[in-house]
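Feature request, filed as a ticket because there's no other form

It would be nice if the structure record came with a short human-readable summary line next to the tokens. Right now we just get the raw output. Example of a typical job, pasted below so the devs can see what we mean:
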Amino acid sequence: MATGFWTTSFLTALAGPDRSVTIPPPTRDFADETIRQAVRLCRGGTTVRVELSNEFGLVPLVIDEIRIGATPVPRDGVARWHIPAGATALSDPVPLAVRAGAELSISCYVSGRTGPATYLHSAQRTTEIAPGRQTTASRLVGAQPSPSLYWISRVLVDQPAQGPVIVTIGDSITRGDVTTPDADQRYPDHLQRRLPAGAAVLNAGLGANRVLRPGLGPSMSQRFERDVLSIAEATHVIIMGGINDIALPDGLGEPRPTAAEVFDGLHTLAERAKERGIRPILGTMTPLGDSRYDDFVAAGYEAMRRTVNDAIASQSDWAVVDFAAAVCEPGGNGRLARTYDSGDGLHPNDAGARALADAIDLDLLR
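Raw output as currently delivered:
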């Protein structure tokens, strides 16, 4: 991880293969392929560094060449990267002027087999995968689309933070699953647009993620150090989670945690943030009633969600954003408002994601 003046301009919460949770698209391995991925920066600079992760890899990851556009991205002075299984690697500084809001096109070429890739399964960005070495091509020949992002964990720039740096951690609601791909319609994207120049919002959402237990990747409790506390310039963290803690155990044959245990898990994350000088903000869980996913409509789920939300709203230790009220159908029936429903009864659409961002009092982020 970079130190000193290097600051995070793009963040991804990565995971590895997990056959126990079958909802998200699986990862894959690569061989003799070019993988071109787009990332949006929230801070500019004159020099960039790219961090790649093989955290969940089973074998060493060898990438023959990486480019940002036409610009080579070496590591230790050479084009070829070698990242041991379980490790991350940071590029050399690359002289490249970038602005806040810029989209970087990062191309990786791998000649040998990579093994199952460390990835973000629903990036809401289209990755292109093409045969052969095409890193210098303006358009990939024979490319196939993928909804996932592979290996890229962070992009850093050489400019200090000049405003609040907010990390949003959560599950698919934070990640923005089912919002329009390639359109920056996730709630952290909308929050970024509400804030003045110099502020940064980093999305650490991970679909199917839980607060207490691992499943698809590490739990929020396990990855809090990696995705929040390690961001040295972070000033705030918005924490929203618990739906998967409530709904997934029955389908996985696990005991369901109590509402108190879920709340305690969220409260503990807030305490850990404060200990590092990061201001925590707790968010209530959005509605799950009338969801099309059978696992999310079992008896007691909605009552448990409300109990956790009541505990969040009634505590006085941390600031609260009432995300549930922002997108719930009027009348208190525990359902997403139709205006905000993506169609599955669980995930907010573009308008719903905007409503989540609009529910955040900006005075909490000053």
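Something like this underneath would help us a lot:
The helical segments are 172-175, 187-194, 220-229, 243-252, 259-275, 301-314, 323-327, 350-358.
The chain has a mean pLDDT of 93.
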